[in-house]
Design brief:
The chain is built from eight helices and seven strands. The chain has 209 residues and is of the alpha+beta class. It folds into two domains: 70 residues, Winged helix-like DNA-binding domain superfamily/Winged helix DNA-binding domain (Arc Repressor Mutant, subunit A); 96 residues, Winged helix-like DNA-binding domain superfamily/Winged helix DNA-binding domain (Arc Repressor Mutant, subunit A). Strand 4 and strand 5 form a beta hairpin.
């Protein structure tokens, strides 16, 4: 990294030519870290690159360096379809809850958790599809999850009535300490005993008893 000037400030000039693991990568990583620190939501890779006047490949390389260094620190770099975001390390959740005097137990109801599981594994998904899996109306649980910021509306289908499509948010990943949707536990399918066709199944986690 550039040596600090006489005032003690490092030179974070633009036009960085990134090289793997070099000082330029670390310098760019520091600049990206500053942007992510002040960003209220996840930031797209191209937006980061544009703001810092570097290529997307250079920005991605610096983000990779940041992610590796965070394994030894209390922060984490969260990747989602919305972009990149700085979060606290999920392993330190108890410390943070105690410091902020938060409840350590979830306030989500069983119904809300069921709906959230369907959305997480089958997104984007509509309320009628969720209802068909659960066998009950899911309006209330959907409203709760939207209010908590765990799911969001991402569009509408072309079906009659144009039902809303729901998907999880970056807050969902942070809430459950997940790096991405790809690390969700795999599912097994349990047949619905009251169904007459093989398509009526509900998703359950492998460790569900």
């Amino acid at each position: 990294m550039e040596s600090p000037d006489q005032n003690g400030s490092a030179d974070y000039s633009t036009g960085v030519q990134a090289t793997p693991g070099g000082a330029e990568v670390q310098q760019l990583a520091a600049r990206i870290e500053a942007l992510l620190f002040v960003a209220p939501t996840a930031v797209d890779l191209n937006r980061l690159a544009s703001a810092l006047e570097v290529t997307a490949r250079q920005a991605e390389e610096a983000l990779g360096w940041l992610e590796r260094t965070y394994h030894r620190r209390g922060l984490a770099l969260e990747r989602s379809r919305h972009g990149y975001q700085l979060t606290s390390d999920p392993a330190l959740a108890e410390d943070i809850e105690r410091f902020l005097e938060l409840e350590s137990t979830s306030r989500l109801t069983k119904a809300a958790l069921e709906v959230l599981a369907v959305v997480a594994y089958q997104q984007p998904v509509t309320r009628p599809h969720i209802d068909s899996i659960r066998g009950v109306n899911s309006d209330s649980a959907l409203r709760t999850l939207v209010r908590y910021g765990l799911i969001e509306e991402v569009g509408r289908t072309d079906a009659p009535g144009r039902p809303i499509l729901y998907a999880t948010t970056p807050d969902f990943l942070q809430y459950f300490g997940l790096a991405s949707l790809e690390v969700l536990p795999p599912l097994q399918l349990e047949p619905d005993r009251d169904a007459d066709d093989e398509s009526a199944v509900r998703p359950i986690a492998q460790d569900e008893s």
